[in-house]
């Protein structure tokens, strides 16, 4: 059976033009997706856990959904400071149920944002977000900047759908009319196709952004001959290109958010865009990783006022990244139970956090056997949103997209499982 | 040799995300991409192993030559291997130093551990399902 116009549930591009062919309950062909999306869709059906599993002494055993959900509610109710972490590869509906549960438990809810674009949000909260939709970029932008990111490997269709290789309504010959600037600490494949590749010494992004801002504001006299490995000549060239553009779009990745300076790097990038907006039109968009990590920020904000790292232990929503973020809470050995949903801290958190996670009662809700599986006491397999579950997901530019189901493999959705656990918690806390 | 430790996505790492117990994921995340000059300084050939010692611990990786990586820096795909050496401090931002810690590199003959062994080393219990 052929399924057309399907949505890819891999990265924040949420490509919506996939053609997927299924035979029975197997995906046999995926057209239009990038290598990452194809691998997910071709493999996600094959590597599922078949049923919930629980630790039994020094071994794993199968369990029923009822037993696993009962156990989950039990450890969350027994905890003084439960951590509910993840939420980025699941539906908005499940994220909403998670926030309600965190509030009732007086726990902390955090999404993978805290280890990807959390610092971008901190910067946006300081100086705002001059953003736009990807459609605007595709149809109007004649200068694209990718700073501290590598779309060729991490968002492989971004350039062909929205920037360099995409046809634009207001560009006569989009490929020739668009210029591309890449800023990175290493020369990647993306760098090799750029009109300007600006190689920054590691940790030098803030200084280079400041130098560009000085030039844009007419103070090139204060810029030294080289800034973090970039020559003044190149900085002048890049600043001139930026000012000459009719519509510039700056995309940035975790190269800015994870490097020294963290959210201050992003703040400086936003302020560079502000400076450029005195001359011409400029916008800025973070390249988001998980397909619905943006959704977690939206849902958390509607419900609590804060985009991630929300702590309900004071009976009101409290937000203080660095204190209420998952890595910090685990590293301080502060939480005494954890519910991990749709993410893999086992693969992506520093070792010290994993040592604490492995020492407390914890449950993983995820379709696959992941690096977090060995660290938890119980795992509940669920449907993959965008494959055997429908739901809402937010693209990296904040556009909500209905992610469609095209298979039925008999698994419950994240929303169903979390809602049932929430009901069990409610029975005890608010009988 | 000291080097700056950088982590991030690669397409092979991204392709392995749905099957992390498979050897492909291990192969994709247990590499240390280095400038050819740094490889030469360490007297290493591509494919040989390198011990990376960071603020939180050490890990054995397979050395891979990459001319795009500047001298004095190494690039390790994000995953359990990179995280074995990264400190959990976040400077009050929530974000660890995934791209800026300093590591020591030296050649080694030790084997690269399997991901399940890494998880057992931090107190986990490997799940030997139908994957392995």
Automatic annotation (TrEMBL), chain A:
Gene3D superfamilies for the chain: 3.40.50.740, Dimethylsulfoxide Reductase, domain 2 (3.40.228.10)
Pfam families per the UniProt record, alphabetical: Molybdopterin (PF00384)
Top-level taxon of origin: Archaea
A GO CC term assigned to this protein in UniProt: membrane
Limits of the Molybdopterin oxidoreductase domain: 48-213
Single GO term (MF): NADH dehydrogenase activity
InterPro entries in alphabetical order: Formylmethanofuran_DH_bsu (IPR016457), Mopterin_OxRdtase (IPR006656), Prok_molybdopt-oxidoreductase (IPR050123)
Xref: CDD domains: MopB_FmdB-FwdB
Record key words, sorted: Oxidoreductase
Keyword Oxidoreductase belongs to the record: yes
GO biological process, one term: respiratory electron transport chain
NCBIfam families named in the record: one_C_dehyd_B (TIGR03129)
PANTHER family (alphabetical): FORMATE DEHYDROGENASE H, RESPIRATORY NITRATE REDUCTASE
Protein's recorded name: Formylmethanofuran dehydrogenase subunit B
Record organism: Methanofollis formosanus
């Amino acid at each position: 059976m052929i399924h057309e116009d399907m949505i890819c549930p891999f990265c924040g591009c949420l490509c919506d033009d996939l053609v997927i062919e299924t035979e029975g309950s197997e995906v046999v062909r995926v057209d239009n997706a990038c290598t990452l999306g194809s691998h997910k869709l071709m493999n996600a059906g094959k590597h599922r856990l078949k049923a919930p599993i629980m630790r039994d002494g020094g071994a794993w055993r199968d369990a029923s959904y009822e037993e696993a959900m009962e156990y989950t509610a039990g450890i969350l109710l027994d905890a003084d400071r439960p951590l509910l972490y993840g939420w980025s590869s699941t539906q908005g509906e499940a994220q909403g149920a998670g926030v309600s549960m965190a509030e009732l438990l007086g726990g902390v809810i955090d999404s993978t944002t805290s280890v990807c674009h959390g610092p971008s949000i901190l910067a946006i909260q300081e100086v705002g977000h001059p953003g736009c939709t990807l459609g605007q970029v595709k149809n109007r932008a004649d200068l694209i900047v990718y700073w501290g990111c590598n779309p060729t490997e991490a968002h492989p269709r971004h350039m062909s759908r929205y920037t360099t290789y995409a046809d634009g309504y207001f560009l006569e010959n989009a490929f020739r009319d668009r210029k591309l600037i890449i800023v990175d600490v290493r020369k990647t494949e993306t760098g090799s196709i750029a009109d300007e590749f600006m190689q920054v010494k590691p940790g030098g992004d803030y200084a280079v952004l400041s130098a560009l801002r000085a030039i844009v504001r007419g103070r090139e006299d204060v810029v030294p001959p080289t800034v973090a490995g970039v020559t003044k000549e190149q900085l002048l060239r890049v600043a001139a290109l930026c000012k000459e553009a009719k519509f510039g779009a700056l995309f940035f990745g975790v190269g800015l958010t994870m490097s020294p300076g963290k959210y201050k790097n992003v703040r400086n990038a936003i302020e560079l865009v502000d400076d450029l907006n005195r001359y011409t039109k400029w916008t800025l968009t973070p390249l988001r990783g998980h397909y619905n990590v943006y959704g977690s920020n939206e849902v958390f904000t509607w419900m609590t006022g804060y985009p991630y790292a929300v702590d309900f232990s004071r009976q009101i929503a409290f937000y203080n990244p660095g204190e209420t973020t998952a890595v910090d809470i685990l590293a301080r050995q502060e939480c005494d139970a954890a519910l991990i949903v749709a993410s893999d801290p086992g693969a992506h958190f520093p070792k010290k956090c994993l040592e604490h996670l492995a020492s407390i009662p914890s449950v993983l809700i995820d379709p696959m056997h992941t690096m977090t599986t060995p660290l938890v006491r119980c795992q509940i397999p669920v449907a993959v949103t965008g494959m055997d579950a429908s739901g809402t997901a937010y693209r990296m530019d904040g556009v909500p997209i209905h992610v469609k189901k095209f298979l039925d493999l008999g698994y419950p959705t994240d929303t169903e499982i979390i809602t049932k656990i929430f009901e069990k918690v409610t029975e005890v806390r608010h009988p | 040799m000291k080097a700056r430790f950088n982590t991030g996505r690669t397409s092979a790492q991204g392709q392995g995300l749905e099957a992390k117990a498979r050897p492909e994921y291990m192969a994709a995340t247990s590499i240390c991409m280095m400038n050819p000059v740094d490889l030469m300084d360490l007297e290493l050939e591509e494919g040989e192993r390198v011990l990376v010692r960071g603020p939180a611990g050490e890990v054995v990786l397979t050395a891979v030559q990459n001319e795009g990586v500047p001298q004095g820096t190494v690039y390790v795909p994000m995953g359990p291997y990179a995280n074995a050496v990264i400190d959990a401090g976040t400077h009050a931002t929530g974000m660890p130093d995934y791209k800026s810690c300093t590591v020591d590199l030296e050649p080694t003959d030790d084997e690269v551990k399997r991901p399940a062994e890494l998880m057992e080393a931090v107190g986990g219990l490997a799940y030997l399902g139908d994957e392995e």
